[in-house]
Structure formats: C-alpha cells, structure tokens
Amino acid sequence: MKIDGKPYRSVWVDEDGWSVRIFDQTKLPWQLDILRLTGLAEVAQAIRSMQVRGAPLIGAVAAYGVALALRADPSTEGLERAVAVLGETRPTAINLRWALDRMRARLHNLPPTERVAAAYAEALAIADDDAETCRRIGQHGLPLLREIAAKKGQVKVLTHCNAGWLATVDYGTALSPIYQAHDEGIPVEVWVDETRPRNQGAALTAFELGKHGVKHAVIADNAGGHLMQHGEVDIVIVGTDRVTRTGDVANKIGTYLKALAAKDNGVPFWVALPHSTIDWRVADGVAEIPIEERAAAEVTELTGRTADGRIETIRVAAEGSPAANPAFDVTPARLVTGLITERGRCEASETGLRALYPEAG
Questions:
Q1: Which of 69, 259, 284, 299 is an S-S bond match for 323, by CB 3.0 to 4.6 Å?
Q2: Residues 6+ apart with CB under 8 A from 289
Q3: Domains plus CATH for the chain?
Q4: How far apart are CA 277 and CA 252, in angstroms?
Q5: Which residues of 18-56 are buried (b: 16+ CB within 10 A; e: fewer)?
C-alpha cells in the first residue's frame, strides 16, 4: 500500500530493530498517527481499543506482541501469560487465536535464550504470509470483476466495514480484487457502507480507496437494498472475522442484512478471507461464534471534524437512552454466493472449503 506515494505495511518493526509500529486507526481519516508499541500492555490496549483492527492484522500485531513480551520475560510462564493476555482482547476474530497458537507452538520448546529472536522471526513470517495471502485473494477475486466489466463495461461493488490494507498487513481481503481491477484499468466504482456505529467504511475504506484513486461514494448503511433494487450494485464483496467449516460468516454488524438484500435482488454476495479466518471447530455460526458486545457510547456518540477543523465527539442519541452494541453478526452459508480464498474460490460449504484445504482433515 501507499499513502501519498510512500509505501507502508500496516505493522512493521521500527528502525531500532525491536519496537513495533502501527497506524492509530481511531485517528483516521483526520490524522495519520503512527504508534510505537514497546510492550505487552501497549499491544493489548491497542487491540482492545481498536487502534489496530481487522481480523488478519490483529493476529499479526498480536504475534509481535508476544515478541515484545518475551523481551521482558522469556520464560515459559512469560510466554503463556502473553498468549493469555492477548487472547482475551477480542473474542470474535479467530485470526487472533490462530496467530497466538502458532507463536506458542513455535516457541514453547525453545530455550528461553532463543525465544526472543525466534519470536520476531515468526511474527515476520506471519506478516509476510498475510500479505502474500491477501495478494492471492485479489488474484482469485479479480476474474469476477473482469466478467462483470466485460458484460457491462464497468463494475459497481458494494462493500461493508473495512476489509482493505488497514485491516490486514497489506492488500486487504475484500478490497484486494478491487485494487487489482483498478490497477488493471477496469472501470470499478465502490459503494462504501458507512458501517455504523464506528464508521469503518466512511472513515477507513473511503480513506484507503481515495488514497489509491479508486472511484467510490460513501452511502448510509440502509441504502444498499435500495441501490440493489435499482440495478446499481453488480456484486457485494465483504471480508470476515470468522468462517465456520460449513461456510457461515461472522462479519461486522449489518453484513447479514446486506446478504438478505442481495439474495432478494439476485446480486452475487461474495466473502473474501485468508486461511487463518477459518474455524474448523465450529459448524453453526449463529449458535457457536461469540459476538463481542462493545461500549454503548459507540452507538450514542459520534466523532468527526467540525467546520473549523477541530475533532469533536458529540452525542446523537436522546439523553438517558441506553444502547446495545453487538459488534458482529453471522450470515448463514445459504446466503453466501461463494468464498474467495488465497487458494481459489469455492462454495460456502464444508465440501467447498475442504476441497481447497484437504489437510484440514
């Protein structure tokens, strides 16, 4: 990815060779702040507060969090404590657990004196894997956009939340085929759901697409069905925080409603995901995937820039009114046209997924 012509990843080791840098996503799009993380507590807070977010990126940052923790305490107790602390930060995104399990498996049997160097190497390997995985997701999703463009001369995509390079180490999941289509010269236009209550679409996806030069427009979350009814959406592509082995998809709250509208209007509904997002233990997403309940203030308040340039938070709900804030919902596999992975596309089913991942058993 590039910001104003300068290449970045979403997480990297600083020039000092040990501290970790991330973008503070709570400040975007108003400020481009780069945070320096130096210890376990800072990494856990960055994940919990959503300074860093997006299922694949959370996993990569947590891996570096283990490395930072081991600098202070490379013992087995220190390793287990780091894994436990980071594992409790966000409950829904399975990539976090996947990355921590991978770090524990790599480091557990090593002598404490070797763990720090091995931890940084493994965290880098996780980050590299995610970047390459997302590039390949884009390659496998690109033919869907090419086909539509060949028939219509252009492609109108609707997406929900942020599943671009800010949610991954690079490229993104749902946005990766869009970027590759744009770079290929395909006329692509993106409808960007605002994605209340945290506005990741309006703030982050729009920021990304604008920096890359992709034509887009921010829409209210409730506008998607209307646009589909009037033929203004050719395809929906979203990311995901967890996919069951049967193809159910957990993603940002509101995704389920988009899938229902797409089904009713005959619009293809595709989900882009890396291998680390598949939870082979879970069959029924609605019954088994834990849904994070976040602070009511995310619903009752909004942050934005005033006319004179100040960043302010205001209350938008009636005084005294409580709010509920489930952060994710589950879209049943029956509403999903198909899954786009780094190994190819498949139907949203156990048969489809196991055809791509036979080693999963």
A1: 299
A2: 92, 242, 244, 248, 250, 279, 282, 328, 330
A3: 2-130 (1.20.120.420), 137-360 (3.40.50.10470)
A4: 14
A5: ebbbbbbbbbbbeeeeebebbebebbbebbeebbbbbbb
69 three-class SS: helix
Does residue 241 carry a catalytic annotation? yes
Residue 361 has pLDDT above 70, yes or no: no
Q: Which of 43, 67, 77, 179 is nearest to 126 (CA)?
A: 67
Non-local (6+) Cβ contacts of 323 within 8 A are: 296, 297, 299, 300, 317
53 is in an annotated binding site: yes
Residue 7 is predicted with a pLDDT of 86
Q: Determine which one of 170, 193, 221, 241 is catalytic.
A: 241
323 in a known ligand binding site: no
Nearest to 341 by CA among 328, 326, 354, 359: 354
Residue 159: φ, ψ to 5° = -130, 160
Q: How confident is the model at residue 2 (pLDDT cuts 50, 70, 90)?
A: confident
Q: Is 153 annotated as a binding residue?
A: no
Secondary structure (3-state) at 318: coil
pLDDT above 70 for 286: yes
Per-residue pLDDT tens over the stretch 290-346: 999 999 999 999 999 999 999 999 999 999 999 999 999 999 999 999 999 999 999
Q: Which pLDDT belongs to residue 255?
A: 98
Q: Taking the mean position of all CA atoms in its chain, how far away is CA 200?
A: 10
Q: What is the mean pLDDT of the chain?
A: 96
How, if at all, do strands 188-193 and 242-244 pair? Answer: unpaired
Please, are residues 22 and 35 in contact by the beta-carbon 8 Å criterion?
A: yes
Round to whole Å and give the CA distance between 291 and 293.
6
Q: How many CB atoms lie within 10 A of CB 150?
A: 10
| Region 38-55 average pLDDT | 95
Closest CA to 327 of 78, 91, 61, 89: 91
Give the tens place of pLDDT for each residue, 90-103: 988 789 999 999 99
- Cα torsion 95, 84, 26, 127: sign: negative
On whether the CB atoms of residues 274 and 141 are closer than 8 A, the answer is no
199 is in an annotated binding site: no
